[in-house]
TrEMBL record:
Family membership noted in the UniProt record: Belongs to the glycosyl hydrolase 51 family.
Molecular function per GO: alpha-L-arabinofuranosidase activity
UniProt keyword Hydrolase present: yes
Protein name stated in the entry: non-reducing end alpha-L-arabinofuranosidase
Membrane-spanning segments: none
Documented EC number(s): 3.2.1.55
Length: 502
């Protein structure tokens, strides 16, 4: 199979917002406890945070981490997580039917973010609580001092405010599973009132209102329209969530979920425009895709853990998807979609970061390692920063369950002007054929290939485990060349590649 593409320096999509490579950590399963925090672990620092996990996170250069939920936030009292640890209450977490020790709260999370070099993106509880809780939490986190909540923060050991800019107004409020679930109008009014109060404190906050939990929700896409009609001028982003699954083991169909993602983004971008026009507003709202990942491998195990009379365990192993090589392709396609939609998707968070549907796994007292999907996320986060190129791609296509005209060769391109580097991320969705790709590079002062990484595996179901951590990992590619302004590269069947040219 042959494919070609044109990359022209003048044809760009947008400057990619670095925050599109963000992540998410929820008080769920072993994400926090035994994930980032394990005081007895041999690598734990003075705050009880695992050094091995922090290293893997740091390597990813994650720009922002959303916290503390997720479904968890909709019945969370943030005040439970402050003050002396031994006095913090144990609470029942209704979302995941577990016990929450509150040993980690905002202070511990903020310190961890500083350690790994990331920004906080905080969510307020608009399920069981509302405006009052949000304004108090904001005052605690961002006010310098001289008020009740800011002085309490200082008393609890943190003098400087954290100055968190990004705030989520609840989580998945369209979902009947959510504590305090609301219809679009109810939620829209509450979110607008909460946003107004938060903006009275600080006009420069960046606020994120809840969009749909997925594109199959019966309320989608009216939810977005109604919520934005209530909130448009008070918020900066609307959040979207989507999880990808392949229980039937139909790879070709699975990989067309990227087409569904693209349509979802396109539809919500159109809804934003519609509401903007209706409101005669000059303000722009963008998409914050704050939960995305493959999620299905652990469903059966979770049914057992969550079903029946499972009690209220603390930090059980929930949502522990073990990712395979096939998921590398899916994650590569998702990230390519975000790069190509960087004009409207400004923030995105892989869900989640450690243990719970995550690129990083840990064993209690034992090792931490990179799952298969760590690598495409790593390459995009480290090398996918700059300006997204509007590539003209010509590739054979196929039709699948979740979308038609899916290009077998899926490509995104990023121009880093500062470093004078071009980076291409390529996925071959064909299961049996090589793809010979020729990329015409127009207007760039490019010389040669400076990096070429390839991920292939004879077994789509191959995984990385504690004992075999390197079964699926990138290797240096061979044979990519630049001759007369043309980059040539061959993609083996079902492969992911990154090629960098300078
Ligand atoms: O990320 C796991 C869960 O998925 C989150 O808690 C929720 O927001 C979504 O349904």
């Amino acid at each position: 199979m042959k494919a070609s593409a044109v990359a022209n320096k003048e044809f760009t999509i947008a400057k990619i917002d670095d925050r599109v490579y963000g992540a998410f950590l929820e008080h769920l399963g072993r994400a926090i406890y035994e994930g980032i925090y394990e005081p007895d672990h041999p690598t734990a620092d003075e705050n009880g945070m695992r050094g091995d996990v922090a290293k893997l996170v740091k390597d990813l250069n994650v720009p922002v981490v959303r916290y503390p939920g997720g479904n968890f936030v909709s019945a969370y009292n943030w005040e439970d997580g402050i003050g002396p640890r031994e006095e913090r209450p144990v609470r029942l977490d209704l979302a995941w039917h577990t016990s929450e020790s509150n040993h980690v709260g905002i202070h511990e999370f903020a310190d961890w973010c500083a350690t790994v070099g990331t920004e906080m993106m905080l969510a307020v509880n608009l399920g069981s609580r509302g405006v009052d809780e949000a304004r108090n939490f904001l005052e605690y986190v961002n006010h310098p001092g001289g008020s009740y909540w800011s002085d309490l923060r200082i008393k609890n050991g943190r003098k400087e405010p954290w100055n968190v800019k990004l705030w989520c107004l609840g989580n998945e409020m369209d979902g009947p599973w959510q504590v305090g679930h609301k219809d679009a109008a109810e939620y829209g009014k509450l979110a607008a009132n909460t946003a107004r109060a938060m903006r009275m404190f600080d006009k420069s906050l960046e606020l994120i209102v809840c969009g749909s939990s997925n594109a199959d929700m019966p309320s989608y896409p009216d939810w977005e329209r109604i919520v934005l009609e209530h909130t448009y001028d008070h918020v900066d982003f609307i959040s979207l969530h989507m999880y990808f699954f392949n229980p039937e083991k139909e790879t070709a169909n699975f990989l067309t979920m990227a087409e569904k993602l693209d349509t979802y983004i396109e539809t919500v971008a159109a809804t934003i425009k519609q509401v903007k026009a209706k409101k005669r507003s000059k303000h722009d709202v963008y998409i914050c895709f704050d939960e995305w990942n493959v999620w299905y491998h652990s469903k059966e195990q979770d049914k057992k853990l969550l079903g029946g009379n499972s009690g209220w365990p603390h930090a059980p192993g929930l949502l522990e998807d073990v990712y395979n090589f096939e998921d590398v392709l899916m994650v590569g396609l998702i990230l390519n979609t975000f790069i190509r939609r960087s004009d409207v998707v400004k923030i995105a968070c892989i869900a989640q970061l450690v243990n719970v549907i995550a690129p990083i796994m840990t064993e209690k007292g034992g090792p931490a390692w990179a799952q298969t999907i760590y690598y495409p996320y790593y390459f995009a986060s480290i090398f996918g920063r700059g300006t997204a190129l509007d590539l003209k791609v010509d590739s054979p296509t196929y039709d699948g369950r979740y979308g038609d005209n899916a290009a077998y060769v899926d490509i995104s391109g990023v121009h880093d002007e500062e470093g004078s580097t071009l980076t291409f991320f390529l996925v071959n969705r064909h299961g049996t054929e090589n793809a010979d790709v020729e990329l015409s590079l127009q207007g760039f002062a490019t010389g040669s290939v400076i990096d070429h990484q390839v991920m292939t595996h004879p077994n789509l179901e191959a995984t990385n485990t504690a004992k075999n951590q390197d079964e699926v990992k990138p290797r240096k590619g061979e044979g990519a060349t630049v001759v007369d302004g043309k980059l040539s590269v061959t993609l083996p069947p079902y492969s992911y590649q990154m090629v960098r040219v300078k």
